[in-house]
Specification:
Number of strands: 5
Strand order of the largest sheet: 1-5-4-2-3
Main location: periplasm
Radius of gyration: 18 Å
Family: Belongs to the thioredoxin family. DsbA subfamily.
Oligomer: single chain
CATH topology: Glutaredoxin
Low-confidence stretches: 1-8
Pfam family, one: DSBA
InterPro entries: DSBA-like_thioredoxin_dom (IPR001853), DsbA/DsbL (IPR023205), Thiol_disulfide_DsbA (IPR050824), Thioredoxin-like_sf (IPR036249), Thioredoxin_domain (IPR013766)
Disulfide bonds: 59-62
Helix content: 40-55%
Order of helices and strands: HHEEHEHHHHHEEHH
Strand content: 5-15%
Number of domains: 1
Largest sheet: 5 strands, mixed
CATH class: Alpha Beta
């Protein structure tokens, strides 16, 4: 069994060693650089500290943020769970993109296609506004489009849409990308000053979360 106090201490050291944490100069200020959630929002596993990125494939800032965020999340210490929640601010293409994300996740295709979806929309300007456009994108990338489309429209994926939007609503998400930390705090590029700075704020909040364990 892992001693929780020992684990928390090791995780704090690991978080402090991250480049974003070392580069941090000023202590983030609640109400300016981050917000505290009241009530606390649910997390997937209360035994782990959780980071949630709220994003949309149609969001150009999410596309620009992805390389830095991906490198950051891969460097997180063990015991910190990182996950993404696609959000929709309208009933059009963003809902299709939510379905696409959850389908790719369930089929184990995110590592292969997550960035390619961003690139299709923001680099190739293939906005994937319809099911046929998404199917064509999948086929171009050597994926069984019919299988993915079936999963997109499955009960399993449909059942994930409402909880995703409920969590986004609980956090008060008004824009993307935003980072929810352990159900307790929210930060974003607009609050922190830049998306890069939001990772520094997230490091700070993760250290607070570990101290509460």
């Amino acid at each position: 069994m892992i001693d929780r106090r020992k684990f928390s201490g090791l995780a704090l050291v690991a978080i402090a060693s991250l480049p974003h944490a070392r580069a941090q100069i000023n202590v983030p200020v609640e109400g300016t650089h981050f917000l505290e959630m009241s009530p606390r929002q649910p997390t997937r596993d209360r035994a782990q500290v959780e980071v949630v990125e709220f994003f949309a494939y149609s969001c150009v800032h999410c596309h620009a943020f992805e390389p830095a965020l991906d490198a950051w999340q891969k460097a997180l210490p063990a015991g910190i769970l990182f996950r993404r929640i696609p959000v929709a601010f309208n009933d059009g293409a963003q809902v299709l993109h939510q379905r696409l994300y959850f389908a790719l996740e369930s089929l184990g295709l995110l590592e292969r296609l997550h960035r390619r979806v961003f690139a299709a929309i923001h680099v190739q300007h293939d906005h994937l506004h319809s099911a046929p456009e998404i199917a064509a994108f999948l086929a171009r990338n050597g994926v069984d489009a019919e299988q993915v489309m079936q999963v997109m429209n499955s009960f399993g994926v449909t059942s994930r849409l409402k909880p995703a939007m409920q969590l986004a609503g609980g956090y008060g998400i008004e824009g993307t990308p935003s980072l929810g930390i352990d159900g307790r705090w929210l930060t974003s590029g607009s609050m922190a000053g830049s998306n890069q700075r939001s990772l520094q704020v997230a490091d700070y909040l993760l250290s607070l979360a570990m101290k509460k364990r």
